[in-house]
Design a protein that fits this description.
heterodimer, A: mainly alpha, ABC transporter involved in vitamin B12 uptake, BtuC, B: Rossmann fold, Rossmann fold, six-stranded mixed β-sheet, 25% strand, globular
């Protein structure tokens, strides 16, 4: 009985962590290049909605994901134009996009789905990998995930490799630390930052699409519930390091999953309090870690060439 | 055929013309020095050649081909490299990572860079640990990395913008030797400096700039140094005396002191006493490590040292802008250790801070407001500002200190650096009570005329019985003004020389930690 509950807890913890892992990993790279995308949550929400819509219309969740990523990338491109080329305040731009995303998805959802909201949306099946399932306790939870969940871990590895072993990664780090020096070394600060923001957009798109077509097979208003903000927190908590960021995302995922575990164990804790837990944890994490981890020096500071 | 040809280059920043119709040839295999005062346009010229700025008029050719770089990347592609006045290295990356930055190859190949670094070490004697992080290196080592970065790609033209300002004397020698070697290999070097001593040692030709125009281009063989100075400052050398010699470092000789330059032989009672001062920065690194110093009334004590050895922190602590970790500071019998700037001012300390723009004045406010920043209460009646009284007082002060501005109501930002600094001096020297003056890098970025005024003010303050602590990175300045020079090295005073026994070599050796007196 306990084993079964633990398996459910671990499984749902991982499942809930996946969208945050996607978004945080992309955001980490973008922030290493010096651009903070507060619009992350908006990108995810728009992607979640678009993926649901496209999947419902075509019957293919794969097309749904592709459409979701496309829309999130478009938002990222707009964010990049405003914050890199036009040097607008990155935080204000991000907040604007989030409000726009919430308003537009809510409106379109009511217009398009309205009465159909009970219709299931075609989604991905779980892979059920037998070789993983044999691991005791965590095995079944690891094995019963959709393909996208494994992709999220793959993206962490890919992002780590990019930052450590490619010249693009070196350029990203340089541009986020000292754009002036990078510029004088012949690197295009604007190009590097655009690519960083678009990368964040693609991954946030995957994260958002995961929510609607891989996890719940439905769309609900404001379904991200601040997952994008949690992802930004995870980046800070993880000290701008891909592996620590992954750990922070898992922590948030499991904290959210406690809302399923605690009632199952018949403990007398109000569910509303448990729903609050990941956000409370995020606050504590930021308060405790912000001072200690060093953020990229040029984070949120637009670059302008000068003598 | 010349390597680089500039014709009719003009660059304006707003209403200010930084460069005006510059026509100049840089030959292959020559070291070409650009000489001029601050604001003469030297850096702007370099930035045009390196693509940091684009000219408003005029054309450039490089190796006979048109050359119009839209950014540093394009200049680099054409074989033009530059060492900037401020380092352009990413501080929290390793040497190898900085050298790989901006080089084509999708996957990083640190091994290739290390091999190339070994070649350069053999060729030019430029050695450095590829794995060291930039922020762990000394200023001289960082500059070595900059030069390695420049030479990696086998460039045609090496531009160095005031590279020696931050170096110790022996590092300057090494740098000038490298310039010669680079030129010997058929490449060209543009070296910006305002020190004549360096020019006579390294240049093939020198171009003098003044107010954005070329005054003269001279071959250095058999050139008359004095006439170069005259064309640089636009007036005769004699009139400026030792001040000018100090400012331009003629031949590296100590300027002779006239009798009026020398203060009282025996300073009076101690006005500033610093004992065992320790300061650790927020990372726990000790910046001041048990520094003790006494300044008497009526004397100017100079602090010499390579930048980054704790003199900046000493200035901040004396101004009350940083709290020491241990030790005591007493001014005229009053404990001021860890006091607020207001309390320190009340104890009779005048401060000319190192960072004029950030700390000494508020550029958006008017000159009059800046002159009475700390004494607003003086001009308020029933809590309201009495502007006309303040204006009148400001006018008097501006006249006394020769602050040139059209009116006390113009913004501080509209004044030249020299007049800003004179205003700061006017404010600080008008404090009452006043027993001690701290002047940190008081002539940085000023022209010769303003430098002279600052020196005279500092000497006058000394003659009025003030104790003065002068922190400066210009050795010539210290030797020209101080009654006593103490040398700071790694947060400690390592030696002291009295007026009359100053020597560049002795101070230089102490600055680099090689010798103790």
């Amino acid at each position: 009985m306990i084993d079964e509950q633990m398996a459910v807890f671990i499984g749902s913890g991982l499942r809930l962590a996946v969208p945050i892992i996607f978004a945080a990993t992309g955001e980490m790279l973008s922030e290493r290049a010096g651009v903070l995308n507060l619009s992350l949550d908006g990108m995810m929400l728009m992607s979640a909605f678009t993926a649901a819509l496209a999947s419902w219309a075509t019957g293919s969740p794969l097309i749904g994901v592709a459409a979701g990523v496309l829309v999130a990338t478009a938002v990222a491109a707009a964010q990049a134009v405003l914050s890199v080329t036009l040097r607008a305040n990155q935080l204000v731009v991000g907040i604007g996009f989030n409000i726009l995303a919430l308003g537009s998805t809510t409106f379109l959802y009511r217009e398009i789905f309205g009465p159909l909201s009970r219709d299931p949306i075609p989604g991905f099946a779980q892979l059920n990998l037998p070789w993983l399932a044999h691991i005791p306790v965590i095995g079944p939870a690891l094995a019963n995930q959709t393909g996208l969940a494994y992709v999220s871990i793959l993206m962490v590895v890919v992002t780590w490799l990019i930052l450590k072993y490619t010249s693009f990664g070196l350029a990203v780090r340089a541009v986020g630390e000292d754009p002036r020096a990078a510029d004088k070394a012949g690197i295009s600060v604007a190009r590097t930052r655009y690519l960083g923001v678009l990368y964040a957009g693609i991954l946030a798109g995957l994260g958002g699409a995961f929510m609607s077509v891989a996890d719940s097979n439905t769309f609900t208003e404001n379904m991200t519930k601040g997952a994008g903000y949690l992802a930004i927190t995870a980046v800070i908590f993880g000290g701008w390091n891909p592996w620590y960021t992954l750990a922070a995302c898992l922590l948030f995922g499991f904290a959210t999953a406690l809302q399923f575990l605690v009632p199952a164990l018949q403990l007398d804790v109000p569910v509303a309090l448990l729903l609050l837990l990941p956000y409370l944890l995020a606050l504590v994490a930021i308060a405790g870690f912000v001072g200690k981890s060093r953020q990229p020096s040029a984070l949120t500071i637009p670059f302008e060439r000068g003598g | 055929m010349a390597l680089l040809e500039l014709s009719g280059l003009t660059k304006r920043f707003g209403a200010f013309t930084a460069l005006d119709d510059i026509t100049l040839l840089i030959e292959r295999g020559e070291v070409h020095c650009l000489l001029g005062e601050n604001g003469a346009g030297k850096s702007t010229l370099c930035n045009l050649v390196f693509g940091v700025h684009r000219p408003d008029a005029g054309t450039m050719t490089l190796g006979g081909e048109p050359f119009d770089p839209r950014g540093p990347a394009e200049a680099l592609q054409r074989g033009v490299v530059m060492v900037h006045q401020h380092f352009s290295l990413v501080p929290n990356m390793t040497v190898a990572e900085n050298l790989m930055l901006g080089r084509a190859s999708a996957v990083l190949k640190p091994q290739d860079i290390i091999v190339r670094m070994e070649q350069l070490a053999a060729e030019y004697g430029l050695e450095i640990d590829p794995e060291a992080r930039i922020d762990e290196l000394s200023v001289g080592e960082r500059q070595r990395v900059e030069i390695i970065k420049c030479l990696l790609g086998d460039p045609q033209l090496l531009v160095l913008d005031e590279p020696t300002a931050v170096l110790q004397p022996d590092e300057i020698d090494a740098l000038l030797a490298i310039c010669r070697q680079v030129a010997l290999r058929g490449k060209s070097v543009i070296l910006v400096t305002h020190k004549l001593g360096e020019i006579s040692r390294v240049a093939d030709r020198t171009t003098v700039l003044r107010q954005g125009r070329i005054i003269a281009t001279v071959a250095m063989e058999g050139a008359d140094i004095r006439s170069l100075v005259r064309s640089m400052v636009g007036r005769d050398v004699q009139s400026a005396g030792s001040v000018l010699a100090a400012a331009v470092d003629i031949e590296g000789k100590t300027p002779a002191k006239s009798s009026s330059d020398v203060g009282p032989t025996s300073p009076g009672e101690a006005v500033l006493q610093i004992s065992d001062l320790v300061y650790r920065d927020p990372h726990g690194v000790p910046r001041l490590d048990g520094l003790s110093l006494t300044v008497g009334t009526g004397e100017i004590v100079g602090i010499a040292g390579v930048e980054g050895n704790g003199q900046t922190e000493l200035g901040l602590i004396l101004a009350g802008l940083a709290a020491p970790s241990a030790g005591a500071i007493v001014v005229g019998g009053t404990q001021v250790t860890g006091c607020t700037p207001q309390e320190i001012t009340d104890a009779g300390v005048g401060i000319v801070p190192e960072d004029r723009h950030a700390v000494a004045c508020i550029k958006e406010l008017s000159v009059a407001e800046n002159l009475y920043l700390g004494a607003i209460g003086k001009f308020s009646r029933f809590g309201l500002l009495d502007k006309s009284a303040r204006r009148k007082a400001a006018e008097t002060m501006m006249r006394d200190f020769d602050v040139r501005a059209s009116s006390p109501d113009v913004s501080m930002a509209s004044l030249s650096g020299g007049n800003q600094q004179k205003a700061v001096l006017a404010r600080e020297l008008s404090l009452d009570p006043l027993v001690f003056l701290l002047a940190a890098q008081p002539t940085r970025g000023l022209d010769v005329g303003a430098i002279e005024a600052v020196y005279n003010r500092i000497r006058a303050a000394r003659d009025d019985g003030l104790g003065v602590l002068l922190i400066s990175s210009e050795l010539e300045e210290l030797m020209a003004v101080s009654d006593r020079i103490a040398v700071i090295y790694r947060g400690k005073l390592v030696g002291e020389l009295a007026a009359g026994s100053f020597s560049r070599e002795a101070i230089g050796a102490m600055m680099s930690g090689h010798a103790h007196v």
